[in-house]
Design brief:
The protein has eight helices and five strands. It is an alpha/beta fold. The chain has one domain: 3-Layer(aba) Sandwich (Rossmann fold), CATH 3.40.50. It has a five-stranded parallel β-sheet, with helices on both faces. Strand 3, helix 5 and strand 4 form a beta-alpha-beta unit. Helix 1 runs parallel beside helix 6 and helix 3 crosses helix 8. It is globular, with a radius of gyration of 17 Å. The relative contact order is 0.17.
Length: 237
């Protein structure tokens, strides 16, 4: 294990360990389900996130897939993502914007604006994971919704500062996965496969700038996500 991998591992383990909570005195955690096809017909699903989720892209592709492939489900999607949002911003608006919708599922992708631009920052990582833990608590206590956290994507590689930010985003993704295992909510693994796609393509065609996917990049994101949330997904939108 190289030094970078060790730093990420210790950072994630050290930070998520302090976030574990017992729910009503019971340490047993039910396994999380990513399969959205088990939601009832007419279920209300809410997207939360930043500009990657707000811009037309992977969310619309996911919605079109369910409308075409599972028409009997009649899912109702609402996109509440806002450009520039952080986990703190989402928490601040949760009671006013999300609770009145009485969602059956809440899908959240955050991290790009929480990560900063200075590489692996333990203080920012801690703040992000604490706030995501608080979001899970709000969803669990104040709604009946299933929570699906989507790990952050990556920035276009190739420069030192970008690679440093990707290390931070990787630590966030690992931290979310650990938090999901501890608390029993679902985490869709987007970070690693999307980074791998960027490396294969050299970033060419998948990004319109350092942080935002192109139309092709959003199709890659949607494919990765649908493979995890629909067991019958045939692949290749």
């Amino acid at each position: 294990m190289n030094r970078t991998a060790r730093v990420l591992l210790f950072a994630v383990l050290g930070l998520t360990g302090c976030l574990t909570t017992r729910i009503e005195g019971d340490t047993r955690v039910q396994p999380a389900s990513l399969d959205l096809t088990t939601l009832p017909a007419g279920a209300r699903l809410v997207w939360l996130g930043d500009s990657l989720t707000r811009q037309p892209g992977y969310t619309q592709l996911v919605e079109r897939h369910f409308a075409a492939q599972h028409p009997g489900k009649r899912f109702q999607f609402s996109n509440l993502a806002q450009r520039g949002d952080t986990a703190g911003d989402v928490l601040d608006r949760f009671a006013q914007e999300v609770i009145p919708l009485a969602p059956d599922a809440v899908l959240v992708m955050l991290g790009m604006n929480d990560a900063g631009h200075l590489g692996l920052r333990r203080d920012l990582l801690r703040a992000f994971l604490v706030r995501m833990g608080e979001l899970e608590t709000q969803v669990r206590r104040r709604t009946r919704a299933r929570l699906v956290l989507i790990s952050p994507t990556c920035v276009a590689p190739g420069a030192y500062n970008r690679d440093q930010k990707n290390r931070m985003l990787a630590a966030m993704a690992q931290g979310l996965e650990q938090l999901g295992r501890e608390r029993g909510f679902a985490v869709a693994r987007i970070h690693a496969p999307f980074c791998a796609a960027l490396r294969r393509e050299g970033g060419s065609g998948l990004m319109i700038d350092i942080e935002h996917p192109s139309e092709q990049g959003h199709a890659v994101l949607a494919n990765i996500l649908l493979e995890q949330i629909d067991p019958d997904y045939p692949g290749d939108l």
